[in-house]
Amino acid sequence: MSPEQFRKEGKKIIDWIADYYEQIEDYPVLSQVKPGDILNSLPDAAPQQGESIDDMIKDLDEKIMPGITHWQSPNFFAYFNANTSFPSILGDLVSSGLGVQGMLWATSPAATEVETRVLDWLADMMDMPEQFRSTSSGGGVIQDTASTAALTAIIAARERVTGFKTNEDGLDKKLVAYVSSQTHSSVEKGIKIAGIGRANLRLIDVDENCSMRTDLLEQQIKEDRANGLIPFFVCGTIGTTSSTAIDPLPEIGRISKQEKCWFHIDAASLGTAMLCPEFRHLADGVELADSYSFNPHKWMFTNFDCNVFWVANRSELINTFSILPEYLRNKATESGEVFDYRDWHIQLGRRFRALKLWFVIRHYGVEGLQHLIHEHVRLAKAFENRVNDSEDFEVVVPTTMNLVCFRHKSDDAFNLKLMNTINEAGKIFFTHTKINGQVVLRMNIGQTHSEEKHVNNAWKIIQETAKTLE
Ligand code: PLP
C-alpha cells in the first residue's frame, strides 16, 4: 500500500469509526451471538491473493459487528469502565503510524521523554507525594495492565527482601504476601507467577465495608514471623472490583513500614478519581506506598492498554529488572543520564503508549477531565437515590463513587432473571457480583458518552422489567 492509497483507505476507516459512534446505540449492547458463530463465518484458510479494504469493511459490518459487545456504548454499565475517546484513538493511531520501539532512550528518545513528562504531569494532577516523580527518587512508567503492574511490584519486592539475590540464585526462602479477601485476583496470579506460591498468600478478612481488617493483618504477620516465614509484600486497594471498597491505607502503610514489607496500592478502577481534589482523601496513605498503580484504560478515556505504575524508589525497580545484552549497549545508557524503560518492567519491547495519554490530557485539560468524573459520580448518586426511593429495590453498600450495588428485594434467582432478561433484550448491559453470599446487581457509570438520559432510561428499563417478572 502506497502512502497515497493509505491516505484514501485511511479516511474510509476513520469515517467507519465515526459512523460507528453515531450509530452505537442502535446495536444490542451485549453481543447476541452463540459460541462459534463468528469463527464459522470466517474462511478456513487465509486468502492466497490480497483483498481490498472495501471487502474488509464489508466483512467488518457483516461478520464482525454481530460479535461485538459495545463497551463504548453509553448504555454499557457492566463490569468496570474500559472507556476510550476520540483523542485517545487518534493518539494511538499516531503511535501505530510511527511504529517506534521505545525500549531504550536511544531507540527513540521522544518515546521515553514524553512518557516521563506525562507521568510527572499525572503525579502533579493527582497531587501525589514528591517521591513518585522522576525529578525525585522514584518515577512512573506505563505498563500494559494493572495485573502486570502488580506482578512487577511483587518481583521487585521479592528482590528487595532477598538483597537482590533471587534473580541470580533462585528463591530459597519462605516469603509471605498479604492481600484482602476482596483484592483483585490478578495479585494472586502475580504471586503464583513470581514463585512465591499460593500457599504463601494470606487473604486477610474484611469488615462490613469490605475493607481489609488491619488488626487481622498485623496478627497474621506476627504469626508468620513466629513460624520463621518472611513477610515481604502487602497490597491495599482503592476501589475493589466487586463493590469499590477502600482499604485503610494509612494503617496498612504503617504496618508495612514497621514490618519492612513492600506496600503496593492497586487503584486500577478508581485511581482516575484522584484527578478531583475532593476525592483525594481516598488515597490518603499513598505517601507510605512503595508502588501505586491505576488504569487510565478504565476511567480516564484512554483506550486499552494503558496502566500507569509509580514507584517511590526507582533504583529498586531498576536493580530488579535491568539486563544489558551486548547488542543493546549504547552511549546514552552508559552515561547514566537517561531512563531506559525496559529496565522498569518485564518485557523488552514497548510501544509509544504515552502518546494517547498525552493526547487525552491535552484535549480535555485537567478541568475537562475533572468535569467528566464529577458527572459520572453525580449520575451514580442520582441512580442510588432512585433505588433508595423505590419500594422494590434496595442499595446494598453505600455508593462511594461511580458504582451502585443494589438488588431487587426478592431472592437471588429473581435478581439474576431480571438481569439476564434485560441484558438479552440488548438495550442496556449490566452485571452482578456476590456480597456476603447474596447476588448484587452492579450499575457501573463511567462510559465516556453516558449522560443523564442513559442512566434514567436504564433505571426505567430495570423497574419496568421487574414489574413484568413479578
Ligand atoms: N485491580 C482491580 C481493582 C481491578 O478492578 C482490575 C480489573 O477490573 C484489575 C486489577 C485488573 O486490571 P487489568 O485488566 O488492567 O489487569
Question: How would you characterize this protein structure?
Answer:
- The protein is of the alpha/beta class and 470 residues long.
- The protein folds into two domains: 167 residues, Aspartate Aminotransferase, domain 1, CATH 3.90.1150.170; 252 residues, Type I PLP-dependent aspartate aminotransferase-like (Major domain) (Aspartate Aminotransferase, domain 2, 3-Layer(aba) Sandwich).
- 44% of the residues lie in helices and 13% in strands.
- It has 16 helices and eleven strands.
- The protein has a seven-stranded mixed β-sheet with strand order 1-7-6-5-4-2-3, with helices on both faces. The chain has a four-stranded antiparallel β-sheet with strand order 8-9-11-10.
- The relative contact order is 0.14.
- The mean pLDDT is 95.
- The fourth-level CATH homologous superfamily of the largest domain is Type I PLP-dependent aspartate aminotransferase-like (Major domain)
Query: Largest sheet, described in full?
Result: 7 strands, mixed
Q: How many structural domains can be distinguished in the coordinates?
A: 2
CATH class of the largest domain: Alpha Beta
Q: What is the string of helix and strand elements?
A: HHHHHEHHEHEHEHEEHEHHHEEHEEH
* Spans of at least 5 consecutive residues with low confidence: none
What Rg is obtained from the alpha carbons, in whole angstroms? Answer: 24 Å
Structural class label: alpha/beta
CATH fold-level topology of the largest domain:
Aspartate Aminotransferase, domain 2
**Average pLDDT figure:** 95
Determine the oligomeric state from the structure: single chain
Heteromolecules bound: pyridoxal-5'-phosphate
Give the number of DSSP strands. 11
Shape: globular
* Widest sheet: strand ordering: 1-7-6-5-4-2-3
Residues in helix, %: 40-55%
